[in-house]
Amino acid sequence: MITIRTIAFDDLPDLARLYEDLINRKTEYTAMVDTFNAIKNNDQYIILGAFYEEKLVGSLMGVICYDLAGDCKPFMVIENVIVSTEARRQGIGRKLMLAIEELARGRGCYYLIFVSGGHRKEAHLLYEALGFKDEQVEGFRKHL
């Protein structure tokens, strides 16, 4: 049984290992702890984990952003979506995305936005099945 819950401090070592699969390099653990401590009490940040028998097998982060345009409703940026290699194709990514969408709706967000690497074709099929393609957009990212 998969459970979805907020990532806690004790989950950080496992989260760092998941992120290695996501970004193909080691996460600087001390910086991760410092950043986690800086955002853990900020309700604009939501970091969810998917757990199978208490083992972290997936995660994502949502960041609620204020908007000054139109009705001035917030929107959510989704980042760091990852499911462990051994746990893929079991509906975990879907559960994470639906959970963050529900939280975004509850916070009054009027849309979700994220970018995904062009090579993640299997993940793109999931995103499309969840309704993320009814508006054609281009994503841009510049690493600094």
UniProtKB/TrEMBL annotation:
<dbReference type="GO" id="GO:0008080">
    <property type="term" value="F:N-acetyltransferase activity"/>
</dbReference>
<keyword id="KW-0808">Transferase</keyword>
<dbReference type="InterPro" id="IPR016181">
    <property type="entry name" value="Acyl_CoA_acyltransferase"/>
</dbReference>
<dbReference type="InterPro" id="IPR039143">
    <property type="entry name" value="GNPNAT1-like"/>
</dbReference>
<protein>
    <submittedName>
        <fullName>N-acetyltransferase</fullName>
    </submittedName>
</protein>
<dbReference type="InterPro" id="IPR000182">
    <property type="entry name" value="GNAT_dom"/>
</dbReference>
<dbReference type="Pfam" id="PF00583">
    <property type="entry name" value="Acetyltransf_1"/>
</dbReference>
